[in-house]
Amino acid sequence: MNAQVVNWAQMHDCHGDVDRVPELLARAEHEDDAAAWDELGYRLVLECDLVFPASFAALPRLVRLASGSARARGLAGAIVRCGAGRHGCDDLLAGCAEATAELRGLLDRHLRSRPDDYLAAFRDMLATEGHYHWSAVLGDFSDDFYQVACPHCAVEVTIAIGGYGRYSAIRDWNLGDVDRRDLRPASPEGLSGTGRRMYETVVRDGQAVLADGITHLFGRAECPRCASVFGIADEYEASHRPRM
Predict the structure, then answer these.
(1) Helices marked H in 45-184 — which ranges?
(2) pTM of the full predicted structure?
(3) How far apart are CA 54 and CA 30, in angstroms?
(4) 182 - beta bridge partners?
(5) Per residue in 206-226, pLDDT tens?
(6) What is the distance between the alpha carbons of residues 135 and 132, in angstroms, rounded to a whole number?
(7) What is the DSSP letter of 241?
(8) Contact present, 136 and 148 (Cβ < 8 Å)
(9) Adjacent-strand bridge partners of 162
């Protein structure tokens, strides 16, 4: 999408206005106006992760600014993360393919510097690759829980990956996680696809805790109810992948 030919009169923002976003972008770009950045944030992405035509219209320009602006990088990433939502702007999203690819490369370079906002930038990069489900839920593996249905008996299984343990269990709201079974992490050599891509990136960047968590997330779990063993990530993706 070429920002120079955007018909802003048709690009309403989260509050229904069509004139504020281009003005705010100009202020942010030329004056690095903090108030303009703040207003762009709540006009382009609502708190409930909704985006509107102006969000995608602004994305290419934000990406061009992102190499020199953490706020532009973060806002661009937030817009891309919302791409799986029911925004009714599929044509505009498709027109942002080039900007999304450029953002992906920028985020990859940013991650190599091992920044303080590593996890947030990593999640944004996952979104640029279309892995919206992992972008939305991946944590730092200090206190992570994932709910999956056992593919054999359909019972809801809690998967815990954190400092307190790495296990599958049945969650009882009175007793806590009961009948715990240790997870079976994947070997790095056994990872493939998305799991391998995620693992190799965080290992490259010296993120040992994330690397260990990913081997567990893409490993296998035993169902406490029927004792069947299943792939955690496979079942999570099957039940949580957003419907575009």
Answers:
(1) 53-66, 70-81, 90-94, 97-112, 118-128, 132-137
(2) 0.92
(3) 20
(4) 167
(5) 999 999 999 999 999 999 999
(6) 5
(7) P
(8) no
(9) 143, 165
